[in-house]
Design a protein that fits this description.
By secondary structure, the chain is an alpha+beta fold. It has four helices and two strands; from the N terminus they run ααββαα.
């Protein structure tokens, strides 16, 4: 009986290769979110009340590194799609 040993790098590369290519539709959805985040800070506010604890609230703000670097959202979208599919996007973000 032979025991095979693989380095962590080989296992990592095998895992990445097993994922396969991303479809243009999937890439578009993922990259639209990233481009939207490059437009500016994103945030949400939650306010409510219940009978047990009374009122509650919360806020969340996120800022992407692309926004902080001043990257153009369209350039972010294009490079993201290219990185995921290996192809230049056929449409712009949010286009039908």
């Amino acid at each position: 009986m032979t025991l095979l040993r693989f380095s962590p790098l080989v296992l990592l590369l095998a895992g990445v290769a097993a994922c396969g290519p991303v479809s243009p539709e999937q890439a578009s959805r993922r990259c639209e979110d990233r481009a939207r985040a490059a437009e500016g800070p994103q945030g949400s506010v939650t306010v409510g009340m219940n009978s047990r604890s009374g009122g509650f609230g919360g806020a969340e703000v996120s800022v992407s590194s692309d926004y902080l670097r001043g990257r153009d959202p369209l350039a972010v979208y294009r490079s993201c799609v290219y990185d995921l599919t290996g192809e230049v996007p056929a449409t712009r973000p949010g286009a039908p």
